[in-house]
Description:
The chain is of the alpha/beta class. Helix 10 (278-300) packs antiparallel against helix 11 and helix 21 crosses helix 22. Bound molecules: flavin-adenine dinucleotide (FAD) and flavin mononucleotide.
Amino acid sequence: MKIVCVGGGPAGLYFAILMKRADPAHDVLVLERNRPDDTFGFGVVFSDATIAQVESADEETYRAITDHFVHWDDIDVHYGGQVTRSTGHGFAGMSRQTLLTVLQERAAALGVTVRYENEVTDLGAFADADLILGADGVNSTVRALLEDDFGPTFDRRPNRFVWMGTTKPFPAFTFYFRENEHGLWRVHAYQYAPGASTFIVECTEDTWRSAGMEDATEEETAAYCEALFIEELEGHALVRNRSVWRSFPTVRCARWSAGNMVLIGDAAHTAHFSVGSGTRMAMMDAIALRDALLRGWDTRSTPHRKGSHEAPGAAMADRVALALAAYEAERRPQVESLQRAAQASLEWFEATERYMDLDSVQFTFTLLTRSLRITHADLKVRDPAFTARVDAWVAERAQEQSGVSVPCDPLPPPMFTPFRLRDLVVPNRVVVSPMCQYCAVDGTVGDWHVQHLGSRAVGGAGMVYAEMTDVSPEARISVGCAGLYKPEHVGAWKRVVDFVHGFSEAKIAVQLGHAGRKAATRRMWEGDVEPLPEKEAWEIVSASPIPWFADRSQTPREMSRADMDAVVADHVRATEYALEAGFDLLEIHMAHGYLLASFISPLTNERTDEHGGCLENRMRFPLEVFDACRAVWPAEKPMSVRVSAVDWAPGGMRPEDAVEVARLLAAHGCDAVDVSAGQTVPFQKPVYGRLFQTPFADRIRHEVDIATMAVGNVSSWMDVNTIIAAGRADLCLLARAHLFDPYWTRHAAAMQGWALPWPPQYRSVERYTPRFEFHFGGE
Ligand SMILES: Cc1cc2nc3c(=O)[nH]c(=O)nc-3n(C[C@H](O)[C@H](O)[C@H](O)COP(=O)(O)OP(=O)(O)OC[C@H]3O[C@@H](n4cnc5c(N)ncnc54)[C@H](O)[C@@H]3O)c2cc1C
Ligand SMILES: Cc1cc2nc3c(=O)[nH]c(=O)nc-3n(C[C@H](O)[C@H](O)[C@H](O)COP(=O)(O)O)c2cc1C
């Protein structure tokens, strides 16, 4: 097989080594524009897990690499005049130049031809190659030459960073956070060779400009940073090597291959340096691509001529194309997952200013778990002592905040600490998210609702939310929706509330809503937001006359002032009924494209009166409803509001708008924001994933100083502990997890060895040892 690798970085060289090792008859050529000893940057980092894969792929490279490793287990966080150390992280660093030398030598020993000072500008000369590898880094020429085929996108991030070195040896991976008159500076530093360390300085664009770094030369940059970090550097100088300020580009490609051409490493995808994964991803790509090519060989070589390296059977080009497709199918999900983790991590560093008033223990915890992949449980395995400090800190704060005594021996996992909202104390942080059941009769709930909410309350959740409960018959999504608009609804709900209060420790909340332009639709399982047949439907209203589905939904009537007055009165009546029924917390639904949300989002509000235009105007009616309910809901009882933090659609709500919404809500006496997202328009493009909405809750909580509830793919108790301990939210709402397992919280307690008292009727369980294995941890 004739292989041409464009680029002799870690990706190109390692792939060349692996292919040549697999079969010395492969003709492998690497073209590198630099000289062998030219390099930018200083060190690279490997985790223990990565290096194990390198070992099994090629032991000699592994040994040569590990000979040069500087190992460390600790992460030191210098913040607020304190150093917090966490251990057990298992990383190793080495010089990038040494890594390249090791790979170059191994490639030469195996017979790979490497031509240095050979810049590739077009691919015409490689027409006879069976495989062309674009391993030419973040500014890939191969990718640019075939831009239409690969479909790259570039997300240039706002922070600025400069990669320098220093002779100071760091005993641990070290983060510094230092503020001066220009802003906050972050440093990521680690040793990669004796007496040689990487020292990356990062800051926001504002800080960078304000410090005059925009026009600074390399010398001026180094001088500024040396003066800034004079104490930290302890007399060591900063070393420059093309140390210019950059902004990180996250590269993604719609496709990684085209015919016999394939991108690997930074050419195909990048991940922010704060997850230390660029070199690792490049080398893992090389292994996966090698495996896909070899698999193609094994399974398709019929008949195989001994000693021949010609692939018989299907044509070589087809075979290569199939292998490249298999490579992408296997590798893309792993890369995208890592890119999502890297995205969360880089966003943390873009917003570090937000966390600067945290206690050092919580600051370190949020830093260590910033990618949303490392959980409280992972840290507990790595560093039980640090995690115990975190748990003690959380327990102490919870006791202070709730006024309820929290045990200190044993310490509760963070999810089992109480949380207070006005006079309501929620006994733990797990909440059953509101879920429509679509089986009420003219708004009246029944036996199903008693068992639905009752079993989940007995199942250990700290609070259960009753489903979206509509304030009038016209406000209902479907004919099966629950209501609080008739006196008989009070008794029906009271039965549910009394069950929850009588047989569990759980609190119970109600979510008042009006479906707006999504009213008069079918039950979810009959077609989501599908309109009812005309003769069964009723007239619907919204902020503006925009139907949900342009081709088949009813066009809502634009609300008049009289309509608004009626809706306010309906909410007030429902609030009074909710109080009579005994609910502990009242939530107003301002999310998911329903009536109040339709005022808030610019995508659904085209009004030209005082309710349209700027956000303040769009919030006017939702706040009027909130104020009217707050006025009749007792001062000692809390109120929350569910919002859609983003619309996932161009021109719609953005996270920064949600912060403003929360600010307005807080000013009107809202106690907690329940932070959901989307469902505003049918053409939304959500970015789903684990904890995909949690960063919005985190941002609101820190920027507005209001309690938040995180919801959306919070699926493991590890996630709940992590969210609470990091202060990303105060309560975690889980919906589908609770449909799957009404005893979700009890099972989480059992798995953590936490004794959650059983109701007396079930107390025999305390003498029962389950013999089944059931894993609902994290990934
Ligand atoms: C500040 C910073 C810190 C980082 N820290 C780490 C870290 O700690 N750990 C880690 O794993 N990764 C780190 N990385 C990322 C890492 O450097 C890259 O992800 C990794 O080197 C990717 O390997 P690659 O082979 O795909 O690309 P590269 O290493 O960029 O190699 C591409 C090669 O192609 C050559 N080339 C480019 N164009 C042509 C052409 N037209 N013709 C011929 N040759 C060409 C280049 O000269 C280069 O040698 C960091 C990156 C930055 C910016
Ligand atoms: C069956 C079902 C019904 C739902 N009904 C409501 C509702 O009444 N009000 C609401 O705000 N969200 C509702 N949701 C959304 C959930 O409360 C929650 O935000 C969403 O499912 C994401 O959480 P999860 O990933 O834990 O399932 C519903 C979700 C499901 C699955």
